[in-house]
UniProtKB/TrEMBL annotation:
Keyword Transmembrane on entry: yes
Organism of derivation: Spirosoma foliorum
Keyword Transmembrane helix applies: yes
Entry keywords, A to Z: Membrane, Transmembrane, Transmembrane helix
Transmembrane segments: 71-90, 102-120, 132-149, 156-175, 214-235, 247-265, 277-296, 308-329, 365-383
Signal peptide: none
Domain Heparan-alpha-glucosaminide N-acetyltransferase catalytic, chain residue ranges per copy: 27-243
Database matches in InterPro entries: HGSNAT_cat
Name of this chain's protein: DUF1624 domain-containing protein
One Pfam family hit: HGSNAT_cat
Domain of life according to the entry: Bacteria
């Protein structure tokens, strides 16, 4: 029988031949696909051709509420949680030096994020300390240690304690200097905490006095990772695939509904990472992964899968470089016909993409998709050469 491309990939990922169901020790192709899809979306929204012309679904909600873009980061943290169970669950955490490796990886991720914030000025007096990679590092560290030291039942209790405790902190505890609990951008408890610990010099500059990846709001972000942890444990169980998928769909729907209902008391808000947002995003991520698992790992649907898998297996690499390279390009100035100078990235966009579109929003989207397609080409080559850069 002729060996198909999918069978080669399945063997590479430790999966069984077509017609069998992945076992508890298998690596899920669907997980790499889901991760790749999420990172591709992240690169798209982070690199528009023109920041002044963006379609509404590709922007974050201004405060309360949510857009599809607001789901990307929690989806990734959810995937981090799922991935931890497959990375650490095989040995039960008994491998020698496993905690040291976890700490080393967390520190590496944190430093990579800090480097992006430092670049290109490297001014320690004004550098932003929090960030996306920094939050991933903290969530990875916390969830890994929780997996090693607790049972799934205890993890459920920890998750409930986090979402309920954060709700109590944000809606009941009076904010020092304000006198009452509130959820406004600059006067909520998380913002106060950022100003006290980080000071305004080390937070997200557009926000000035608080950070969307700040300290206190990282606590519920760990809750998002825990949902992934529990999902991964369930997927690694020896239950039949249909039962796994049915329970994931049911639980995902329940979490999504609870998040929407809780929105009336504790508004869905990405910047604060509210508990209702944890439930909503976690529920939708669970539904998305369940669908991918059923189609890819159970039904062996493979059309269009592998390009996103290529994104997924080098996710941190592409996220880091897709943030660094545009900054480097903007340091290289190019003189335009009118005599003004712009960064090389903007020059390429204005010269080769924008003139072909009447609608500036379409041009901006085309610029983002062009950037993603270039990365698709690079990552596909890396995938075919089996080049995987591990952090």
């Amino acid at each position: 029988m002729k060996t198909t491309e999918f069978e080669i990939s399945a063997d590479k990922y430790g999966l069984k031949p077509v017609g069998t169901i992945p076992t508890a020790s298998s690596r899920l192709l669907s997980l790499d696909f889901f991760r790749g899809l999420t990172v591709a979306a992240m690169v798209t929204v982070n690199n528009p051709g023109d920041w002044g012309n963006i379609y509404a679904p590709l922007e974050h909600a201004s405060w309360n509420g949510w857009t599809p873009t607001d789901l990307i980061f929690p989806f990734f943290l959810f995937i981090v949680g799922v991935s931890i169970t497959f990375a650490l669950g095989r040995t039960g955490g008994m491998e020698k030096g496993v905690i040291g490796k976890i700490v080393k990886r967390s520190v590496t991720l944190f430093l990579l994020g800090l480097f992006l914030n430092f670049f290109p000025k490297f001014d320690i007096t004004i550098v932003r300390i929090p960030g996306v990679l920094q939050r991933i590092a903290v969530v990875y560290l916390a969830c890994s240690l929780i997996l090693l030291k607790t049972t799934p039942r205890q993890q459920v209790y920890i998750f409930c304690g986090i979402v309920l405790g954060y709700w109590f902190l944000m809606t009941v505890i009076p904010v020092p200097g304000v006198g009452y609990a509130n959820l406004e951008p600059e006067t909520n408890l998380a913002a106060w905490f950022d100003r006290i610990i980080l000071t305004p010099a080390h937070v997200y500059k557009p926000a000035k006095v608080w950070d969307p990846e700040g300290l206190l709001s990282t606590l519920p972000a760990i809750g998002t990772g825990l949902l992934g942890l529990l999902t991964g444990t369930w997927l690694r169980s020896n239950r039949v695939a249909a039962e796994k998928v049915a329970w994931l769909f049911a639980t995902g729907c329940l979490l999504t509904l609870l998040g929407l209902l809780w929105d009336g008391l504790f508004p869905i808000n990405k910047a604060l990472w509210t508990s209702s947002y944890v439930l909503l995003a976690g529920g939708l991520a669970m539904l998305g992964l369940a669908l991918c698992y059923w189609l890819i790992d159970v039904q062996h649907y493979k059309r269009g899968v592998l390009p996103f898998v290529a994104f997924g297996v080098n996710a941190i690499t592409v996220f880091f470089l897709s943030g660094l390279i545009p900054r480097i390009m903007n340091l290289i100035h190019v003189t335009q016909p009118d005599g003004t100078e712009v960064g090389s990235k903007e020059y390429l966009y204005r010269t080769f993409i924008a003139p072909h579109f009447a609608d500036p929003k379409n041009a901006s989207l085309a610029g983002a998709l062009t950037f993603v397609l270039i990365w698709f080409g690079i990552l596909w080559w890396m995938y075919r050469k089996n080049v995987i850069i591990k952090v």
